[in-house]
Specification:
The structure is a homodimer of 146-residue chains. Chain A is mainly alpha-helical and 146 residues long. Chain A is built from 8 helices and 3 strands; from the N terminus they run H-H-H-E-H-H-E-E-H-H-H. The model of chain A has no long low-confidence stretch (mean pLDDT 92). The structure holds a DNA duplex (30 and 30 nucleotides).
Amino acid sequence: MSNNNEYMSLKLENQLCFPLYACSREVVKQYRPFLDELNLTYTQYITLMVLWEEKQICVKKLGEKLYLDSGTLTPVLKSLETKGYVTRQRSKDDERLLLVEITEQGEKLRELAKTVPTRVGCSIKLSSEEAMTLYNLLYKVLDGMK
Amino acid sequence: MSNNNEYMSLKLENQLCFPLYACSREVVKQYRPFLDELNLTYTQYITLMVLWEEKQICVKKLGEKLYLDSGTLTPVLKSLETKGYVTRQRSKDDERLLLVEITEQGEKLRELAKTVPTRVGCSIKLSSEEAMTLYNLLYKVLDGMK
DNA sequence: TGTAATTAAATTGAACTCAATTAAATTATA
DNA sequence: TATAATTTAATTGAGTTCAATTTAATTACA
């Protein structure tokens, strides 16, 4: 009798990756109306989230936190600079490093953004226990991969 | 005493969306070496996965399954057509519908692709119970959003 | 010291994603 | 039946993502 496991696993629903991919995009989509109000994209928003905590950080470290590389971050940071939310300048100690720093205007944006998570949270229909479980499993996958 | 919950929730780690977004991209990245062998992108691959099950489907229905719209699918389907894996033709019954059908060559690719899930699965360091829990929670979020 | 190796960011090019718009076909209804 | 509303794909444009390459700076070490 033939073994169908491999063929079975080629079903969309049988792979973890697909719901992960679809769910990620759908949840990011929930942010849009709220981020539109702030004239921010999701990528710009999470970049600012790091800077609201760190004040100053180089592109490399920022990329490690966001799992993004300079190919993605360079245009995002230039755009945030144009909007007046960050400054970009080379480190005096090591000219290879580009230091990104939040501006006063960028700090102010935090006040306007602070209700976003709660508002988006409403469309994620999980109990806090389920959300915690999901959160932990996602980081387990993420940590297990590096 | 002031309430800091809203500020707290602006931390990257405090939102479910970020690990979802990062995890999705990292897991998709794991597919690359295997899909490179087949000269397929991830989006092309999941499109074929649907067609391996359905044989024929219109763009609308395909988009519902993949959570993608024609803006994304049209170029993907044209590319798969160029590679000889699918055909695209308007429905006789309703000229608005574009019917996508798997070709014999597309069917053959399934044989080559069948080991991909198992090979990628190795880099997801979860027990089968954890994987099932994660899977169910992702679909709960996804289903709760439509 | 001088050269090689490494590191950080920018750039390039291909592909994806999505919102908004357009065009064509179909369906509903006045 | 004629017109209006709806539906389906395609198109457009902005922004993202990533691999690969390039450039400049720093570090390692012969």
